[in-house]
Write a structure and sequence with these properties.
The structure holds two protein chains of two kinds. Chain A is α+β, with helices and mostly antiparallel strands. Chain A folds into two domains: 109 residues, Rieske [2Fe-2S] iron-sulphur domain (Rieske Iron-sulfur Protein), CATH 2.102.10; 240 residues, Naphthalene 1,2-dioxygenase Alpha Subunit, Chain A, domain 1 (Alpha-Beta Complex). Chain A has twelve helices and 19 strands. The two termini of chain A are 22 Å apart. The two termini of chain B are 26 Å apart. Chain B has a single domain, classed as Nuclear Transport Factor 2, Chain: A (Roll). By secondary structure, chain B is of the alpha+beta class. The chains are: A alpha+beta, B alpha+beta.
Chain lengths: 417, 150
């Protein structure tokens, strides 16, 4: 298929359904995106504080181990034995001085190098490996690892640009803002959605849907599109920050705006108003900041709940959203309690996020039979992709697709980016 | 204190039946005036981490949850079926295993979750009521989303 035939519009305002459903395209994504020059969120330094601490994660569908060696250095490598391709480390987390595959006991050091093979010289001089077999050539495949304020990122492409360049100034600033104080993990939640991973990646960049799909936001007056807010991207538009400022609109303004949208604004009050009360913690007034990093990381502040989402593709038809809830180590007890309570807002059972699971599943289901038809991405207009200081827009989705097309080598000639 | 076995069995039978019938007001009446309802991924429980999937640390939050479910939230159209195992009581502490199946509007049923209720009961109006309901969720990779109570 020619690239012109893939894209009905040069500004990525039309996305053919086939991109969510084609198994061949999914394989290409694993090779060119997740194994390509992107930086993938791996976890937090706070999750592996001690020498020998390890945890399992994924880059795309590829299983990865992140660990800290005896000298305190963090390494990440593909969790797949050089011998038979089996998982080396089956446990999800723990502390170890080495990693040994159970199948034939090949043993790897914490930097991923192969250190020992049983019966390497055989038994009684018979069997084993040829003396020319070079252990150094059979270590675990290493990732390049870097971190921003304790958030660990890895890339499988040794030629990838540096992490800070990859993120770009506005994104870097947001991640640093998010992780400005030492972090405490409050818990994890996981969700398996029967939809393609890109539908989720788009959803996190879609400011337009927030107060329409997630009616709780407006019904209980937590967040409305009449607030001062917008979208901000890196120079190449692959990442995005969706932001809004607290208490920056009036009730009258919101009632008028939502009257035509069949969304009832502020007509209910909560028995526990703490669920939506925003406690300002920073110099800025942001009560909503959703930072999406290509391909699959999202740093989410909704009021005082803080979460890092990792988008884990699980085949063309399923995605796992793995979410780490965090607070700060120096949170006073009442703020910790506030965050645990506001964790009700997010995750698979989140009062303002459960709908995403359903929206993605119905989009995946209905688009599947017609690969040649397409979505429409035109809120905030088509044409050149740029930041917006308003909220009724989905322009960052076009940014996502423009970089996606570049990595897959399917940019149309004359693309408008 | 400990409770009459039949009264405890009735409480759990009512609990599942009312949820499956969508009778949430009657379901709320099975909770004590001061209560807690938390759905905790088993993974967090094992790691000693406090964040829940649903974290109602007061009756007010639980009632807000139900109100949001009715007034604001959108979720997969389905019915629930709770299969609740025999309660195992030690004084006011009661545990019961459960499974919840979901059926979509085209009649396809799937196992949605299994887990363990780890509860503390109190007597109110001469009947046992839930003062603390901790739902330890085996199926912490939540299929699709979690809207209707477990």
């Amino acid at each position: 298929m020619t690239t012109a035939a893939i894209w009905p519009a040069l500004d990525y305002s039309r996305v053919p359904y086939r991109l969510y459903h084609d198994a061949e395209i999914y394989r290409e994504e694993q090779a060119r995106i997740f194994n390509g020059p992107v930086w993938n969120y791996l976890g937090l330094e706070a999750e592996i504080p001690e020498p020998g601490d390890f945890r399992a994660t994924y880059v795309g569908e590829t299983p990865v181990i992140v660990n800290r060696d005896g000298a305190g250095r963090v390494h990440a490598f593909v969790n797949r034995c050089a011998h038979r391709g089996a998982l080396v480390r089956r446990e999800e987390r723990g502390n170890a001085t080495s990693h040994t595959c159970i199948y034939h006991q090949w043993c790897y050091a914490l930097d991923g190098s192969l250190t020992a093979i049983p019966f390497r010289r055989g038994i009684r001089g018979k069997g084993g490996l040829d003396p020319s077999f070079d252990l150094a050539q059979h270590g675990l495949r290493r990732l390049k690892v870097d971190s921003v304020s304790g958030a660990l990122f890895g890339t499988l492409d040794p030629a990838a640009e540096p992490l800070e360049t990859y993120l770009g100034a506005p994104i870097l600033e947001q991640v640093r803002r998010f992780l400005a104080r030492p972090v405490e993990v409050l818990g994890y939640n996981r969700q398996r959605i029967r939809g393609n991973w890109k539908l989720y990646a788009e959803n996190t960049r879609d400011n337009y849907h927030a107060s329409l799909l997630h009616e709780f936001l407006v019904t209980f007056g937590l967040d409305r599109s009449t607030q001062v807010g917008g979208v901000r991207m890196d120079a190449r538009h692959r990442h995005n920050i969706t932001w809004a400022e607290a208490a920056s609109d009036s009730d009258d303004e919101a009632h008028a705006a939502y009257a035509g949208a069949r969304v009832r604004s502020n007509y209910l009050t909560l028995k526990e108003p703490e669920l939506v009360r925003f406690v300002r913690e920073r110099d800025d007034p942001l009560n909503l900041a959703v930072t999406s990093i290509f391909p699959g990381a999202v740093f989410v502040q909704i009021s005082n709940s803080l979460a890092i989402r990792q988008i884990r593709p699980r085949g063309v038809d399923e995605v796992e959203v793995y979410q780490t809830m965090i607070g700060y180590r120096d949170d006073p007890p009442e703020m910790k309690r506030h965050r645990l309570r506001q964790a009700n807002l997010v995750g698979p059972a989140g009062l303002v996020s459960m709908e995403d699971g359903e929206a993605i599943e119905i989009a995946h289901r209905a688009s599947k039979p017609d690969p040649d038809r397409h979505t429409v991405i035109e809120l905030g207009g088509g044409g050149v992709i740029s930041d917006r200081d308003y909220r009724v827009t989905d322009v960052p989705l076009r940014g996502f697709w423009s970089y996606y097309a570049e990595l897959l080598g399917i940019e149309p000639a004359g693309a408008v980016r | 204190m400990s409770f009459d076995r039949a009264a405890v069995a009735d409480l759990y039978a009512e609990y599942g039946a009312l949820l499956d019938a969508g009778e949430y007001d009657a379901w709320l009446a099975l909770f004590a005036a001061a209560c807690r309802y938390v759905v905790m991924p088993w993974e967090n429980h094992r790691l000693g981490l406090p964040a829940g999937l649903i974290y109602c640390d007061s009756r007010a939050v639980l009632e807000d949850r139900i109100r949001a479910l009715r007034e604001a939230n959108k979720y997969n159209i389905h019915t629930d079926r709770h299969l609740i195992g025999l309660p195992r009581a030690a004084g006011d502490a009661v545990e019961a295993p459960f499974a919840v199946y979901q059926t979509d509007q085209e009649g396809a049923t799937r196992l949605f979750a299994t887990g363990l209720y780890r509860d503390r009961l109190v007597a109110e109006g001469g009947r046992p009521r839930f003062a603390d309901k901790l739902i330890l969720l085996d199926t912490f990779a939540v299929p699709s989303l979690l809207a209707t109570p477990l």
